[in-house]
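Quick one, tokens below:
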């Protein structure tokens, strides 16, 4: 059976979502996203000209006809600004899907969770499919589910840090707390980080810096693709329990006695 990611009724075969930022030339962005196998790409509405269709534009190299665009509200520090940005994105891209960010601190880029919940509730009421970037707090995740978000997107580590999954235990608790998809967003630095996210049981992983900050973004995008697939398979397979002491791989009973 196909193992698919479903977000508010839309079906995707890839569980890797890729950003389009970091100031990388758009031709390279297009090649890396193609190598990643991703079907959903995020775009910062306040930083990218969505009316530009020139040869060097994002829309030319990452076509909205091929990929599902997920506009985000990067750079917004209030619920009011985030809601307005989402409305502009819907106008420009004709989509109700949005990645909601409401930043609370310019240095850490940690979210303002109070404003985030306010914005999420208003956007859901306006008919948006809301995927909110949040901290790894199970209480906040539950509040976002309760106001009608289509998924929750807890951070693995601060945006662009590449620190990997700093608190896998909170991610596990979030997975037990909510029934909507859990997509880890931010902090992935290399392929093993992505595999860990999926092994925990998350539904998908979103990354930007981990790919476009690499020396070879196309190779890293390929590695991330395989890591996500491997981590998902490992989660479904079920790992062996951890033990303090050794356990023989072969049974000791019935061993053939050798003559002295």
């Amino acid at each position: 059976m196909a193992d698919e990611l479903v977000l508010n009724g839309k079906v995707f075969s890839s569980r890797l979502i890729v950003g389009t930022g970091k100031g990388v030339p758009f031709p390279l962005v297009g090649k890396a996203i193609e190598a990643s196998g991703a079907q959903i790409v995020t775009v910062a509405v306040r930083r990218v000209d969505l009316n530009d269709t020139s040869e060097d534009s994002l829309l030319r190299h990452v076509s909205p006809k091929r990929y599902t665009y997920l506009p985000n509200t990067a750079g917004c520090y209030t619920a009011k600004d985030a809601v307005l940005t989402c409305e502009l994105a819907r106008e420009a891209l004709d989509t109700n899907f949005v990645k909601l960010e409401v930043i609370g601190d310019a240095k850490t880029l940690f979210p303002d969770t109070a404003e985030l919940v306010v914005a999420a509730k208003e956007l859901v009421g306006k008919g948006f499919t809301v995927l909110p970037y949040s901290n790894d707090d199970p209480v906040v995740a539950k509040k976002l589910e309760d106001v009608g978000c289509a998924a929750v997107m807890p951070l693995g580590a601060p945006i662009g840090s590449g620190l990997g999954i700093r608190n896998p235990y909170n991610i596990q608790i979030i997975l037990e707390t909510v029934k909507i998809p859990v997509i880890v967003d931010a902090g992935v630095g290399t392929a093993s980080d992505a595999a860990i996210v999926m092994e925990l049981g998350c539904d998908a992983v979103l990354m930007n810096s981990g790919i476009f900050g690499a020396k070879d973004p196309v190779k890293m995008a390929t590695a991330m693709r395989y890591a996500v697939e491997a981590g998902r398979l490992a989660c479904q397979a079920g790992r062996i329990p951890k033990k303090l002491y050794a356990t023989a791989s072969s049974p000791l009973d019935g061993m053939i006695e050798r003559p002295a």
